[in-house]
Structures are given as structure tokens and as C-alpha cells.
Specification:
Helix content is 70%, strand content 0%. The chain is mostly helical. It folds into 2 domains: 95 residues, RNA polymerase sigma factor, region 2, helix turn helix motif (Rna Polymerase Sigma Factor, Chain: A, Orthogonal Bundle), CATH 1.10.1740.10; 77 residues, Winged helix-like DNA-binding domain superfamily/Winged helix DNA-binding domain (Arc Repressor Mutant, subunit A). It is globular, with a radius of gyration of 21 Å. It starts with 14 loop residues before the first helix and ends with a helix.
Length: 198
Amino acid sequence: MATSKVTVHPSAVRPAETGRAAEMALVERCRNGELGAFEEVYRAHAGRLYSLAWRMVGNPTDAEDLVQEIFLSAHRKLDSFRGEAALGTWLYRLAMNQILDHLRSRAARAGQLTDGIEDATLIEDAMAHKLDASAIDRVDLERAMAQLPEGCRAAFVLHDVEGLEHREVAEVLGVAEGTSKSQVHKARLRLRVLLGRK
């Protein structure tokens, strides 16, 4: 007796479903020890994770070391990936934890504490300055970003530089979406002040 095959036209499958299924298949290949599978994960995500690390720590050598640590951690923790979020989001979360741990240990070694930027005079200063994007040198921006408290810097880099939505930033950082919005806003205010002092 002949059975009829049901075929699904590729356009009937939503891209997110196809992407998520492909990610889970790749993760399963990694878990099974297939040669080259984890290299695919590395190639797909290393560039963005390096960019994130470099912007957060401000040092290319530290950023390279961190990317290696992030992928070692990802390899060890791959069994905990359940596909509830995109693989890239999961890797960002691992990366941010690794990067923030690095920054905290660096600050502790240097005996520095990061300050909040809640004070009213800072906000008044920020409102008094206008950012002229064409006048801002990339180096000045990178230096100013390095002066942001780590929470603000992380949210700013993920949202304004990497282009993640606030809900994604919140997921990566393990905070509420409102906290992400607040941190990005504070970072922008602080950057206005820092860049206005040139």
C-alpha cells in the first residue's frame, strides 16, 4: 500500500523555526563530538563576541583571551543549552558573565570601585551638552565608553553598538527590560558629559 508523503514547501516554514532547528541540530552535533561542529559555532559567533569583549575591556589582548575563555566555557556548558533562547543570546550571556567577572577582578586588583551615575549634577551637565556625531572621534568615544560603570557600559554596548533590543539586552544581562532602558539612558547621558569636555 502506497503512503502519501506530506511535503512542506520551504516558504511555509518560518525563518525563526528553521534557524532554531538548525541551531539545535548544530548543538546536538557538538554534544556528540562531531569534528568541526564546535568550530562552526566558533566561526559564526567569535567575531561579534570579540567585538563585545574589546568594547567592554578596551584592550585587544584581553579581548582575545576572553573570547578563548568564553568558548571554553561554552564548550563545557553546552549540555545546559536548551534552545529556549537563540544560541547567540546564550553565548552573549556567557560572554557578559565572563567579561564582567574579568572587569570586577581587574577593578579589585587595582583597588578601584565603579561609581553609580545617579547624581543630579551629572544629568544637568549632560542635558547642557549636545552631541555632534560628526565631531566625535571614534577614539574619543571608545575612551569615554571605557569610563562608564560596567552595568551602563554593558547595556550601552549591547543595545547601541551591537544592536540588540532591550528585551534581548535584559535577557543577556539577567536584568529587567526597564533596567536595560535605564542603563542605556544613563550611559548616553554620561557619554554626553564626557564627550562634551573635549
